[in-house]
Design brief:
8 strands; 8-stranded mixed β-sheet; disordered N terminus; alpha/beta; 45% helix; 296 residues; 13 helices
Length: 296
């Protein structure tokens, strides 16, 4: 019993210090918890080389990028993912209300604690507005930018009602009640029909979120800043990825961003909906790596 307690204590200290290693002894994969702005933020860092920070959307976790880490890390990048407060394994304070600004501060603080002065920074869906906020706050932290199935526009009246409904449903019926609402847009019909394992994987991630996290994220999306004026200020290389079948933020939104970010590149991901980075990961990985080669 005493030895078990010692083992638990050792693991706890490693997690709190953000130094728990998972898989192998070469330090190529690091996983842990970081004390960030009153929250406990879970992160995974895999590989070595140019840092690439990827931020997930609502109400997912860093595991959205589980099919991207190996390919990107094996190509010479240090791939860092995190779970926003209230999602995945991260924990938010009980009083947390959530905002795009808060998530952006968290991500920058994670970079600080992992000794990453600058990185290729990408965001999927809700991760996009977070990336825009990070750029407005600290453009010097960006080597380049990746925008994945996301939007720069502020929320319109219809979308505000949608996020309000999501929050209310989570409060009334629990996080698991959002699975059906979200998966119909996350994955294409063909994938949901033929690859039920993909739907289960993303559904299980949705269930991991706390109700408070679901509500905070819905509020953050509903009140997100207008990032359209930011597009013209972006001077770093930018890649825009969007699933051809994305019904949440369809390709025209990506096209508008591409037209307003000087020198940016847009790639359409075939056979994929809103979670295109997961649904057609091989295509997305090739697109990212082909573009990233031009940065060196």
């Amino acid at each position: 019993m005493q030895q078990k307690n010692k083992n638990k204590l050792a693991l706890g200290l490693a997690l709190l210090s953000g130094a728990a290693l998972a898989g192998g002894n070469d330090g190529s994969r690091q996983e842990g918890m970081l004390d960030v702005n009153g929250a406990q933020i879970h992160y995974v860092s895999q590989g070595s080389g140019t840092p690439m920070l990827l931020l997930h959307g609502y109400p997912l976790s860093g595991e959205l990028f589980s099919r991207n880490r190996d390919a990107l890390a094996n190509a010479g990048y240090r791939v860092i993912t995190l779970d926003h407060r209230g999602y995945g394994k991260s924990v938010a304070p009980d009083s947390d209300t959530g905002s795009i600004q808060t998530y952006a501060k968290d991500a920058l603080a994670v970079m600080d604690q992992l000794n990453v002065p600058s990185a290729i920074i990408g965001g999927m869906s809700m991760g996009g507005p977070i990336v825009f906020e990070m750029y407005r706050t600290a453009p010097e932290r960006f080597k380049a930018m990746v925008l994945i199935d996301t939007i720069a526009n502020p929320t319109n009246v219809v979308e505000k009602a949608l996020w309000g409904g999501m929050a209310q449903k989570a409060v009334t019926y629990g996080s698991q009640s959002l699975v059906g609402e979200l998966l119909k847009d996350m994955l294409s019909g063909v994938t949901r029909l033929n690859k039920p394992g993909d739907a289960k994987f993303l559904g299980d991630i949705v269930k991991q979120a706390s109700v408070a996290g679901d509500v905070a994220g819905a509020v953050a999306l509903s009140e997100r800043p207008d990032s359209l004026p930011t597009l013209g200020t972006i001077t770093v290389p930018t890649l825009i990825l969007v699933g051809v079948e994305d019904t949440v933020y369809p390709p025209p939104f990506a096209m508008k961003m591409q037209q307003n970010i000087a020198g940016s590149k847009m790639v359409l991901i075939p056979g994929a909906a809103h979670a295109a980075i997961y649904e057609n990961a091989p295509f997305a990985n090739r697109a990212i790596l082909d573009w990233a080669k031009t940065l060196k």
